[in-house]
Design brief:
It is built from 7 helices and 10 strands. The protein is α/β, with parallel strands linked by helices. The protein has a single domain, classed as Rossmann fold (3-Layer(aba) Sandwich), CATH 3.40.50.1360. The strands form 2 sheets. It has a 7-stranded parallel sheet. The protein is globular and about 45 Å long.
Length: 238
């Protein structure tokens, strides 16, 4: 485990972009595991800047996203497909056919989970997986539970997660109550994991996740067992 503490959000974003950019340069057809939320926006902006400067080529890159809200399709401006199109995919030369997000409009989420895990295997696995962390220790939408869930699956969102995500919606009532998320198996099988977190409010849960007991009550604690984990943190709330 490597932990990097930066002085501000801009530096955190740049250091994280360094690792993603290195993966793209070393393996032009790499499989990037991507995440959404406010934390990685600066990282995506930095990757776009480097693409526009001619430093990066995404034409052969493949991507798989962690999760999607159940009930939302890619045209909904609160969907994670829409987020990725807005912040990265539509701004670089990645082939849209090579970008993958779980189908939030699936009629059978168990079957969708199986399809998504098979897709990841077909791609050869994830080269680097980007993660954020929730205040309750969730990664993706793997919420605190009595056991770790391995495959991609539907999950009922914890009230604290719904409350935290309400800022992106007109009201808390509009936040979907469930999501489909990559499970712990695909996350842990990624060759490298990069976790980014900003804000002093994340300091305590990071301490529990990285140095406390490994427990499904703090899903991110399982990352302690990953052989190539980098954590980049700043106390800056932007």
């Amino acid at each position: 485990m490597k932990i990097i503490e930066t002085k501000n959000y801009a530096e955190m974003s740049k250091r994280a972009a360094d690792l993603i950019a290195a993966q793209v340069l070393l393996k032009p057809d790499a499989v990037l595991g991507l995440a959404t939320g406010s934390t990685p926006i600066g990282l995506y902006d930095e990757l776009v800047r480097r693409y526009e400067a001619g430093e990066l080529d995404f034409s052969a890159i493949r991507s798989v996203n962690l999760d999607e809200y159940c009930g939302l399709d890619g045209t909904n401006d609160q969907s994670y497909r829409y987020f990725m199109n807005t912040h990265l995919f539509d701004r670089v030369n990645i082939d849209p056919k090579n970008t993958n997000v779980p189908n939030g409009k699936a009629t059978d989420f168990a079957a969708e989970g199986e399809r998504y895990d098979a897709l990841i295997r077909q791609l050869g696995g994830i080269d680097i997986q980007l993660l954020g962390i929730g205040l309750d220790g969730h990664i993706g939408f793997n919420e605190p539970d009595d056991a770790f869930t391995g495959p991609t699956h539907e999950v009922k969102l914890d009230p604290s997660t719904i409350a935290a995500n309400a800022r992106f919606f007109a009201s808390e009532d509009e936040v979907p109550r469930s999501a489909i998320t990559m499970g712990m198996a695909s996350i842990m099988q990624a060759r490298r994991v990069l976790l980014v977190a900003n804000g002093n409010s994340k300091a305590e849960i990071l301490k529990k996740a990285l140095f406390g007991p490994i427990t499904p009550q703090v899903p991110a604690s399982l990352l302690q067992l990953h052989p190539d984990l980098t954590v980049i943190f700043c106390g800056d709330d932007k």
